[in-house]
Specification:
Strand content: 15-25%
CATH class of the largest domain: Alpha Beta
Order of helices and strands: HHHEEHEHEHEHHEEEEHE
Number of helices: 9
Largest sheet: 8 strands, mixed
Distance between the termini: 68 Å
Length: 262
């Protein structure tokens, strides 16, 4: 059998995915596929011919079943569709970011995506705050901080004993000192907030948190007047990428021990 091109395999799975999915690992007869999928016999024949031709299904004792490559190809296709679904849903907001910005598509895989709406413009920011409110430890990078975020962190650190490692852009630190000095001093005094300042940060907020339900990643993309979209994910790939990116920025940033450092 000639080795198929990967793009051809993906195209066949996209086109004949229902047949491949219904074939299963135990095998199924053609007439059952016709009934289950409610399509013509000729459609099933074409689907089986294409899938069998690239080794994704095989005939065994008059039935057709998925091969191991067929199962793996279907899993990869489902993962691709999931990531593309997240990309499509958040593309309008993500398109505002530079094309070379550090971002991993793993964050979009089966993600929770919350958009700001005219009647509820603060929902993305609140959703990010929900993670902080449930967390026991938080690591974050932020190019902007809104008043409600300041209060969420203050309350969580001072009253719930949350620990947090946060990298902020220089300009944000300046605004915190001028507009929220008391809250900043109170949280720093607990010793549970480690704050660092950087000349440059990524142009969106990134948070990875330890919560009772496991690790969670939260991304907040900004627009005019506030948070435009929240993207949430708890998948290991997304969590691992977030930790690595925060590590890089943390190492390059300078510690801020008190507001007087500004």
């Amino acid at each position: 059998m000639t080795r198929p091109d990967p793009s051809e395999v993906m195209a066949v799975v996209a086109r004949r995915g229902r047949v491949l999915r219904s074939a299963g690992s135990d095998g199924v007869r053609k007439r059952d596929l016709v009934d289950d999928l409610d399509v013509s016999r000729s459609t099933i024949d074409r689907g089986i011919r294409e899938l069998e031709g690239i080794g994704l299904i095989e005939r065994v004792d008059g039935t057709y079943r998925r091969t191991l490559p067929g199962r793996l190809a279907l899993e990869e296709y489902d993962a691709f569709r999931s990531r593309m679904g997240g990309l499509v849903e958040s593309s309008e907001a993500l398109s505002e970011l530079p094309s070379d910005v550090e971002f991993d598509a793993a964050v979009l895989d089966d993600a929770e995506i919350v958009h700001a709406q005219r009647h509820s413009p603060h929902v993305p920011v609140s959703r990010l705050g929900d993670i902080v409110s449930r967390a026991t430890h938080v690591r974050a990078i932020a190019p902007a901080v809104m008043p409600q975020q300041v209060e969420t962190y203050r309350e969580s650190i001072v009253e719930r004993e949350l620990t947090a490692d946060v990298v902020l852009a220089d300009a944000v630190v300046g605004r915190l000192v001028s507009a929220h000095r008391d809250a900043l001093e109170e949280t720093l005094a607990t010793g549970r907030l480690s704050l660092r300042r950087a000349d440059e940060t990524i142009p969106y907020s990134l948070l990875v948190a330890d919560t009772p339900d496991g690790s969670e990643v939260g991304v907040l993309v900004y627009g005019d007047g506030g948070g435009r979209v929240f993207i949430g994910n708890g998948a290991p790939a997304a969590v691992g990428w977030a930790h690595e990116l925060i590590d890089e920025h943390w190492e390059r940033a300078a510690p801020l021990r008190s507001p007087s450092d500004d």
